[in-house]
Structure formats: C-alpha cells, structure tokens
Specification:
This protein is of the alpha/beta class. The protein has one domain: Vaccinia Virus protein VP39 (Rossmann fold), CATH 3.40.50.150. About 25% of the residues lie in helices and about 20% in strands. The chain is built from six helices and seven strands; from the N terminus they run E-H-E-H-E-H-E-H-E-H-E-H-E. A seven-stranded mixed beta sheet has the order 3-2-1-4-5-7-6. Strand 4, helix 4 and strand 5 form a beta-alpha-beta unit.
C-alpha cells in the first residue's frame, strides 16, 4: 500500500452499503500498478470518477483501452463496480484514493493518453480555493505523465473555477494547446459526453457547464 500523505476533506465512507454488490467483489477490480499500466496501451486516467458514468462511457468509446479511475468515496466505487459487473466490462480498474497518491506511486513517464477531470470539487468559498485540484502545480506535474499529444479533459459548472482554468491555459500555453476555443465546442450541453451526476445537478440548477480539451505540446 502506498503511503497516503494528502489530507482528505469530507467523508469517504458511504452512509449505507449498497446491498446489490457482494462484499468479495469490492476489491476484484482494484488497480494493480504492476499489471494494469504499460506504455504500449491506450491508457486513460479518470480522476474523481464519482458513480462511474464517465468511466462506463469511456469503456464503450475506447473498448481496447485501459481505464484507471480515482475515487475516494466508497459509494461511488460501489456503484461503478455494480455497473462493471452488470455490463461485463473488463477494461476498468479502480484506484480508491487520491489521484496525486496514484501519480506519486508511478514512475514519472509518458504513460497516459488521456486524463479526464469532470466536475472536480469547486470549493466555492475563497478561503478553500487552495484545496482545488487544478492549479499551477497540478498542471506542471500531470504533464510528466502524458504521452506526446496526450490530452487533459476538464469540465466545470463553477464560474470562478472556469476563470481559474482560463488563466492557467494562458499561463501554460507553452505546454498545452487549448483545442476547443469556441462556445459550441466548450459548452458541455452541445457535446456527446457522459451525463454524470454532477452534470445533471448543474443542469437542474440552470448552471452552464464548460468543457476544456488541452493537448500536450
């Protein structure tokens, strides 16, 4: 087990265990660092996978890929495992922890073709902005793990988080190319993407969701 050095904000255990899943299946799809990643595969990292809607979507879109999800919340992982079992999916593996913990356990090498971060916690209060995943340090760090022309896909419905991402895109224009620079292809509503729990929540609250596709230069 890797040493966990990142502070956890919030609750990781579910309020109740999903009775549809057998207890011995909880660890059946755990990520194995020695078996589940190699540079020759098409590798996808899904950070903050929630209930797994995007991982399921990606598994169908890229059936020959290897998809690694990162989610600290037990209920989400149980929901994803239920769907994996139901749909007989074999290309998803779960890392039940912080994404930075996963990356710290990997050799800094070009290994991921895509990194997806859909609706990360916006931490809306200004005093909590330092807790946001996407920042200067993260974009520098994740660059080391992207293959040539690898992509980071980000979505948010937070206006302040969106502004931060715009600023970071400008700051990192020497490292990332912003591929979808017009409203029709950054408006999540117009795109064929996974309808996650948080996307639906934003939609029901009349909040616009913005999608960013950044390609490694």
């Amino acid at each position: 087990m890797l040493n966990f050095k990142y502070k956890l904000f919030g609750r990781s255990k579910g309020r109740k265990r999903n009775k549809n899943i057998l207890l011995n299946n909880l660890n059946k799809f755990d990520f194995n660092i020695k078996k589940d990643l190699n540079n020759k595969s098409f590798n996808i990292l899904d950070i903050g996978s929630g209930n797994g809607e995007n991982a399921i979507y990606l598994s169908k879109l890229y059936p020959n890929s290897r998809i690694i999800t990162c989610e600290i919340f037990e209920d989400g992982n149980i929901n994803l495992i239920n769907q994996i079992n139901k749909l007989h999916i074999n290309n998803i593996r779960l890392f039940k922890g912080n994404a930075l913990q996963l990356l710290d356990g990997l050799k800094e090498d070009m290994i991921f073709n895509q990194v997806w971060i859909l609706f990360p916690d916006p931490w809306p209060k200004k005093r909590h902005h330092k807790r946001r995943l996407i920042n200067h340090t993260f974009l520098n760090y994740i660059h080391n793990f992207l293959k040539d022309s690898g992509r980071i896909m980000i979505a948010t419905d937070s206006s302040s988080y969106m502004q931060l991402i715009f600023n970071l895109i400008y700051e990192f224009k020497h490292k990332y190319e912003w591929e979808n620079q017009n409203y029709q292809i950054w408006n999540y509503d117009f795109l064929d993407l996974a309808e996650t729990k948080f996307y639906k929540k934003a939609l029901n609250s009349n909040r616009k969701s913005t999608f960013f596709s950044l390609k490694k230069i």
